[in-house]
Amino acid sequence: MRSRLITAVGVLACASSLGAQTEARPITPEIRPLVGVYMPTGQMRDELKAATMLGVQGALELSRNWHVLGNVTWAHGHNKYALSTDRTDVWQYDVGAEGNLVRSMGGRWLLRPFLGLGAGGRTYDHHAEALESKTCTAAYGSLGSEVQWLRVALRLEGRGYLSCFESPTTRKKDTRNDVGLSVGLAFHLP
User: Fold this and answer.
1) Which structural domains are found in the chain, ordered by start?
2) Does residue 179 contact residue 156 with C-beta atoms inside 8 Å?
3) Can you give the pTM of this predicted structure?
């Protein structure tokens, strides 16, 4: 009888200890403005030039190590076709997830390296009248880090994209790749 009582008390103590460790923490929203560069790679370099990129991400911090996010970027692009204008805006919009580590750097500073995956769409908005704008799917993998102090963080992120592409001149469809490098801020809202 006595051993059963000790076992029951031990089980209850462990259960309450585990319950305290898994206590729900609030989901924290974040706003992340960014600026960077869009860089075509591989065959995409034959179609478009590197361009300045602006954008914003909205994220939800589900736990210290997981985020879900939505992203919209615009690149002020230029194509390599000999037409009346070489302007091609590249719009990227996607959703994804990030997994990150959290390391204290002393005081209230945190280092948060991350990896991410996501998918969405991309629109090539050609300004020349002879070219049609095209929209298709895209997927990405990301790598980066945040340095956070209290509710503000400086973010560095690199994204590698695979996307479908239909040439506006030949109508040939294939898969292309490019890279986006950005720096931005993350505001962790209360």
Assistant:
1) 27-188 (2.40.160.20)
2) no
3) 0.83
